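Reopening this one. Same input as before:
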Amino acid sequence: MLLVDGASFIQERLVAEIDELCPQLPHAVAWATGGSLAAALVLADELDRRAAAQNEPALRSLADSVRLVSLPTPRNDEFFEVYRRVGKALVQAFNVSSQHVEEQLRCDLEQFTYGWAALPACTDLLPKKVPAAANAAQLGYRMAEHRIIAARAAIRRKFLEEEERRKRQESEDRAETVQQEPSAVAESTPDHHLVVVRLSDLDMKSQKLKDIIGPLKNAINIALPLVQTPALHDARNALLFEFPYAVDVIDFALADLVGRATVHLRPLLIVGEPGGGKSRFARRLGEVLGLHVWRTDASRSDGAVFGGTDRRWYSSEPCHPLLAIAHGKMANVLVLLDELEKAATRSDYGRLWDCLLGFLEAETNCRYPDPALQTNLDLSQVSYIATANRLDPLPSPIRDRFRIVTFPKPTAKDLDALLPAVIADLANERGVNRSWVPPLDGIEREAVARHWPGGSVRRLRRIVEAVLRERDIRASRN
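Same output, byte for byte:
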C-alpha cells in the first residue's frame, strides 16, 4: 500500500530489513545499486533458499515483497509463475490482516489483492510502462467499482425507505390529530404544504362516503407536500439528453418555473404531428421535476368521468385531479391530457372540453366543487399539460386557457444526438443497466440512418430495437 501511495523509500526499507536478517548479503547490495528486474529476481530466489535453510518465514515474505515492487506490468506469460506466487502470498496475507485492520484499509487491501490476481489475464488492457503494482491498484478498483456503486445505492435506498416510513407515520399521526376538527389543519399547515380536502368528522363517518373516502385517506384533512422546484439547469440538461431537437419547447416549459419555490406549470398545450414524442416529453417533464404524473386518455374520457360523478349515483367517483393527488401523495401533481383534440363531442355526460374550464381557471380551481364528496377542493397547484396532433377541433375557450407550443419532429441531423437516449430507454425497458449496452458501431449506425430519414421517434425506437435484437442473436450464436 506504500507503493500505491507513491512512497519513495520502499526499496531502502526492504534492503534494511533484509540486512537485519542476512547482514552484508551481496545480492541485496546488487539490487540496491542497480535496481534491475534481474537483480531483484536473483535476490528473491536467494531469500527463498535461505528461508528454507534457516526455517525463517520472514525471509520468504521479504522475497515476495521484492518481487512485488520490482515486477513490471506483464506483457506476456514470461513471468507468469512469479506473478502467481506473489498473488498467492497476497491472498494469504490479506486473509490474516483483514481480521484486525480498520474497514477502509481492509477495502484497499482487497482491491489491490484481487487486482494483482487479475493482472496476467488483463495484459492487453493495461498501460505497459506502468509498474505492475500501480496497475493492480487501478484494476482492483475497477473490478470493485460496480460493487461499491451497488452498496452505495442500497444504503441510499434504505435511507429513502426509512425516510418514507417516517414521513408516512408523521402524516398518519397528523391525520389522527386533525380528524376531530378539520379547521385546525389550516392553522398548522407547514410551509410548502397544502390541504386539498377538508371533511368534518361526521362526513368521515358517513356510510354514504365510506367507499369514496377509502382510496382518498392519504389526501383528506392532511397537509400534503408541494414538490419544490429543482435546479432548472439540471432539469434542462436531463430533458435535452432525451429530446435534443426540442430545445425551444424545453425552454418554453421551464421558463414558467423561474423564481418559483414550488413546481406549478400554467396549462400547456403541446401540438405536433404523431410520433414526435409529445406525450413522452410531457411525462418526462413531470418526472424530471419530481411530480407524480397522472395520464388521462382524452379520447376515452368525458366530463362525467374526469370531473367526477355525483354522490347520488351508485358509481360515484371523485374528480381525476383528486385521484391523482391521493395516488401521488402530493398537492402539485401533473395531469397529462393525451390527444385532447380527440375528446368526444357528444354532450350526454358533458364534454371533457367544457369540464376542463373549471380546472384551468385560477379563480375556480382553488374551490372546485367535487360532486362525489360535495365539498370544495383546493386544486390550485395542479399542473395540466395536454397534447394534440392539431388545433382545429378544439373550441376557442380551451385554446384561450392553454399556452400553446409546437413540438418539432427530429430530422436526420438529430440522429447522433438521439441514439444515446433511445438506447438508454430501451435498456431500461429490458431491465438492464444502460452501461451494459454498448453504443451502435459504425455499421449499425449506418443501417439505422438508411432506414430513418427523420420524423417519427417511435419508428426510430423500433429500428434501434431491431438492431439490438440482431446484435443479441449474433452474440448468442457466437
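So the earlier flakiness isn't reproducible anymore. For the record, The chain is about 55% helix and 10% strand.
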